[in-house]
Amino acid sequence: MGPDELANGLAELSVQHRRRKRMVMQVAQGALAECEGQPCLNFAANDYLGLAGHPVLVDACIAGARRWGVGSGASALVSGYYDAHCQAERELAAFVGRDAALLFTSGYAANQSVLGSLLGRGDAVFGDRLNHASLNDGCLLSRATFRRFRHNDLDHLASLLEATPARTRLIAVDAVYSMDGDEAPLADLLGLARRYDAWLYVDDAHGFGLLGEGHGSACASGLADDRLIYMATLGKAAGVSGAFVAGGGELIEWLVNTARDYIYTTAAPPMLAEAVRASLRLIAGESWRRDRVFAHVRRLGAALAVGEFEHPPSRMPIQPLIIGNSEQTSSLSERLRAQGIWVPAIRPPTVAEGRARLRISLSAAHDDDMVSRLIAALGDGGHGTAGDRDDVGPGSG
Fold this sequence. Notes:
CATH superfamily of the largest domain: Type I PLP-dependent aspartate aminotransferase-like (Major domain)
Strand order of the largest sheet: 3-9-8-7-6-4-5
Number of strands: 13
Largest sheet: 7 strands, mixed
Radius of gyration: 21 Å
Order of helices and strands: HEEHHEHEHEHEHEHEEHHHHEHEEEH
């Protein structure tokens, strides 16, 4: 698209009700937010355990900054690898039951870097049709032959694996799918990986910290195999930033030497690694956070199941409400915001045509009154008045 076409392109996005707008947050992440001067209940974030603003993490970050400074100064292989990074990687590996781990600046970077490191021309990679964009981009950029299988369809995947002549094969899936909140059959997928001598790459962005007593989806499924490559992000349930990949020691050593993002990107600040270490202790020690968020999930799920819109069942804090039409979805999201309830509208191309939705994210930071207010507003179709938001703010339940 040339410079003269940008205005027309943006106008077309507006007509389709697909033009995105960033909301300027004016308070720290939490159940209560203030967006562009408007107080609201925050059902938009992935801060599932309510740790993003936790004082223990804040203090760990401050102490880390005092010890290590703010910037890392270089990529990890030059001079940007600190003891804080080393200790965090060791603790992350132990936490998910793997031999070794490697920190990345984001899940997107990890997915592209790992897939590109292990795959190339002549290889084959197989991805679920509902995989996150970062996995799809990693598959495409790897230059391997990329085949997509029907969502959670093991027979379709097996037929594709059976037909490939590629020597190196990799199956890439989300453990928990970010828009529907459903889960991949990891044990069965690992069985196929063993049968067809393939890697299994698991992106556990939305399961880490929640499933398996917080240790993640692979641990919850009892999976242990050197062909399993485990990735989890640290900016959701863990409340910090970045991501890590865990697996066998030789795999991690290979990535240190070949993963382009790891080699060429300035390392994340070591103060964040200190916050990650503190987060692991909270995840392990405060199981009530998982208990609370899953109680919210059960309650909201029961309410949405009898509503007018489609609600795919999910046991995870991601609770989708399928509206279908982008304009109607945006309108409902705006009506809720007028009542001081922030639930984002998710539209194509993030989801398929005709599958626009509200994506409700629950957190341990929410209390019962907040969830009650959300249920009441959704039951009213978001038709409350702007004046209903007056009680949103510190102390409102």
